[in-house]
Amino acid sequence: MRTKKMFPFLLILFSSLFGIWQKQESGTSKDLFGIYFIDSSYGWVCGDSGIILFTSNGGREWICQRTPVNKRLKAIHFIDLNRGWACGESGIILPTTNGGIDWEIQSSPVNETLQDITFDPVSHLYGWGGGNKCGIWSFDGGNSWQGDSTIRDFNAVYSFDEFCVVFGNNFCLFTTTDLGRTWYYTPSQETILDLKVYLQVGPDIWTAGRNGKAEWGDRGGEFFWDLYPAVVPGTCNLFGIAYEPDFSEIWIVGDDGSIFYSRDTGRIYYLDTILGIPLYDVTFPCVDLGWAVGKYGAIFHYTNEANINEKGLLKVFSNLKGTTFDIRGNKVLPKRKGVYFLKSNNKFKKIIKWR
Predict the structure, then answer these.
(1) Residue 340 burial (CB count, 10 A)
(2) What is the pLDDT of residues 273-325, one digit of tens each?
């Protein structure tokens, strides 16, 4: 529950209007490390002992898919409803071409644990992966992979254009915009555990790391990215980061069960809730719709039933009389996305969330 001391008598309403995290039945007690949804219905989760779970109804039911391995799977990525990859211990790479009905073992160029895997969002021809002192890449849509086991540890990797990818490392980012012919080195103030990129937002990149450290940054400068420390009210290790598609909120999960959110594109985070179970990954495929996974088979689902679209908001405000306040108690006009309070006759009569 998000608690704002400006209006303590409205805390019960916050629990519903801000959204809630509810635990979904996964059917397993195995630790879960990676999650990927392609829309609000279809998603996959991977974890210990080669487990992969699948849902076609937004997590109301999770079905265990058979895999040919018994090793820990750390990450999973799909480019459409049928084609996906999972990776993990001993350099394991598992592809599927039918949504996970069949998973196969693919020849891997490395033997080290792979921590993350991604594909370019444009053509889906260029795939990248990173792990313990290794990196892998595919330039044929994941049909074959090349790799290098002599490079640094990479905990996170994210492709943000057809020829562009960034690897997250201990206290640095490595970025290429020409399929690896040229690399840019950006120093970081943290051990990066996860990262996300989306250009033309400003900021363009977000990272999450050890000991409660996170960063946001813009493209440009001598080191390709200009990185700045974010404010996070905690010291847990931050294993997963995700943005909502409209960038109204950035989310981070930690290994003490903490979930943090930011409404200023990743500059300042606030504690949303503490679920009490270590969390390792988070995703928001749709606005106000997210999932987080973690230890002991934990899957948590976030929903916000109070979503009001822009047209509806304008209609509501045009018919109401009173003074509008933002979440900090400042008088404002509701022109931007956020949470607003309408005060009329010395009473707060309406609370509206604009997405």
Answers:
(1) 19
(2) 889 899 999 999 998 899 999 999 999 999 875 443 333 333 344 444 556 55
d(CA 111, CA 128) in angstroms, rounded, equals: 16
**Look-up of token digits 């640095």:** 172
Kindly report whether the peptide bond that precedes residue 109 is cis, defined as omega within 30 degrees of 0. no
Which helix (H) or strand (E) is 314 found in, with range?
A: helix 310-318
Residue 316 CA from chain centroid, whole number: 32
Indicate if the alpha-carbon torsion angle 184, 188, 192, 194 is positive or negative.
negative
Q: Cite the beta strand spans of 198-334 per DSSP E.
A: 205-209, 214-219, 225-229, 238-243, 250-254, 258-262, 270-274, 279-286, 289-294, 299-303, 323-325
Cβ atoms of 254 and 212 closer than 8 Å: yes
The enclosing H or E element of 310 equals helix 310-318
Phi, psi of 50 (to 5 degrees): 70, 15
Q: pTM of this prediction? A: 0.82
The pLDDT value recorded for residue 1 is 37
Long-range CB pairs of 285-288 (<8 Å, 24+ gap) are 285/37, 285/38, 285/39, 285/40, 285/43, 285/245, 286/39, 286/40, 286/244, 286/245, 287/244, 287/245, 287/246, 287/248, 287/355, 288/19, 288/244, 288/355
Tell me which H or E stretch contains 311. Answer: helix 310-318
How far apart are the C-alpha atoms of 142 and 223, rounded to whole Å?
Answer: 30
Rounded CA-CA distance 15/171 in Å is: 37
- Listed in sequence order, the DSSP H helices in 11-118 are 11-17
Q: Which letter does DSSP use for residue 236 in this model?
A: S
Please answer whether residues 100 and 54 qualify as being in contact, where contact means their C-beta atoms are separated by less than 8 angstroms.
Answer: yes
